[in-house]
Please model this.
Amino acid sequence: MYNNSDITISEEYKKYLTSRKRMKSAIRISRIIILILIFVLWEFAAQKDWIDPFIMSQPSRILETLITMGKDGSLFIHTGVTVYETMVGFIIGTILGTLIAIALWWSDFLASVLDPYLVVLNALPKTALGPIILVWIGGTTKSIIVMALLFSIIVTIINVFTSFRNCDEDKIKLLKTFGANKRQILRKVVLPSGITTIISTLKINVGLSLVGVIVGEFLVSKAGLGYLIIYGGQVFKMDLVMTSVLILAIVAAVLYLSVLWIEKKVLKMM
Model:
């Protein structure tokens, strides 16, 4: 029987793989070094009064704030609120946007009618809708989730629908020749061809949803990282503001890496 042990790898290919591994390791190490240098220089500049530590804060004070927030539990409460609102808006926006894209692909008439509205909504600054949503829905978690939804759904619709529309026409004609109906074409050709675009859209949506949540928390929330940033700025607790921004950056990175993990799993299954 044929097995993987029968495969021989040339020396040139081994050298190529080794160089690739070294390059990846060098990239990771360089990223870590740059991050460490940023915090070291930031702390040094604050201690030497090159920058005002009251305005710019400094890593040691941020660490103290993190420890204090961790002890009283506020760190986990506010981070949990923001992550929950982001995930709900992200999931609803992706699913609903994909379903609307399918509807647009299904009906050329509907696509032609809605096309200019999608263009306008995509260009419209979503923050301008914040006060309107606040009046319509009220100052609740629902309004924050709706903000996250608005930031992500239009991008999902446009990207996924464009992918569906650019599907290989020859494959569609072949299926029609064998008598396939529109639902079968969607399931067998259009959706599989759009998987990579949908996954790429997830990477964009997770960031947009987080932006929408923070904007919503700026306006109405009494909990969450956006609320902490606004509150800290109002009472001039810049340590709290910078700590919240740092936590927000970590949350954004974790969410993005989670989407990358999903992408790898899905691509392996294809």
Summary: The mean pLDDT is 83. The radius of gyration is 24 Å. Residues 147 and 154 are 12 Å apart (CA to CA). Residues 182-219 form the longest helix (38 residues).
